[in-house]
Amino acid sequence: MLKNYHPYLRDIGLSEIQIQLYDYIIKQKSGTILEIKEKLNLSYAKVNYNMSVLEDLGLIFSSKSKKNKRYFRIDPQIALTKVLDERMQGFKEQINMIEETVKAEESTMGKCYANITFYHYTDLNLAVEYYYNLIENCKNEIYMSALPPTLLKKLEHAFYKAFLKGIRLVLYFSKEDFDSIDDYFDQITDILKRIQIEIIQTKETTCQHVRYNDMIVNNGVVLIDGKYLNTVLFLNDDIFHFDGFYGTNFVQQSKRYLKVKTIIKRIKIEYPEPFQTVLDILQDKNVISTKELSTKSKIGGGKLREILDYLIKIGKIRENKLKESAGKPKKVYSLIEGSSL
Q1: Residue 254, C-beta contacts closer than 8 angstroms, at least 6 positions apart
Q2: Has this prediction a pTM greater than 0.70?
Q3: 245-257 pLDDT, tens digit each
């Protein structure tokens, strides 16, 4: 009887495993992870993750006890009506997006990333061009699973520009994501050394495994602003395919997939090396001119200007102008009292 409702459950975004688990709870009324694991012959991690997804969707609820937590069904009519309401809200957001797309296409300013509804590429350069467009228009955050070092190198400049705008960047990875890259952490910290980023190493894989041309490969993700889901099919440092689309529910589910992982190590690069160098010099000097700062830091031109503008924007330093007897005023910099390094 429940199978009659499976097409609807698929329509609201449930995977086959999630439908199987939901059927079990509806029939049995409750169950622990161990009970479900044994009955359905699924791994503990798979049951744990997907039951959390069902609970987040409001289809089931659990006991507060962490030990031997038990999951219970919610009246399907109530639960599924709520999910449907949320789905309707999602449709309204998509309609708004279509409206924005039409406006963008009619605008003399040209197209913006709002009109990228779906794309797929096997050409790395074309895909990177789309990624640049999406990242350039990012407003708040970028979450990533493990990604090939080659791709991170190509996107490093876009990530740097995003960091200067105040975008939050988070990258999850696991050693289980790679067969032949043993120094992944060292590689990515070297590639992303100019960027303020949070790097989280997990015990479990951060990429889902999928079949591509008779191979099992990683399906990595780049999640932008909670709206744009971008996937990368890769194996170690070999990249095969890209695609992406607008979908808030899919992005939220992918983000939850990352956040439920067992964290081994969490590192936040607060101030990348050149930024920290400038701050260290300013800590030693009460006031310093642009010329002297450039000499001491060995950073010049536009790069130093970028660093100073960013530190001013986040309230770490101040810029003043000193009038001299001749010529234009000299710019000097100092740490703002009370700002922590």
Answers
A1: 221, 223, 229
A2: no
A3: 888 888 888 899 8
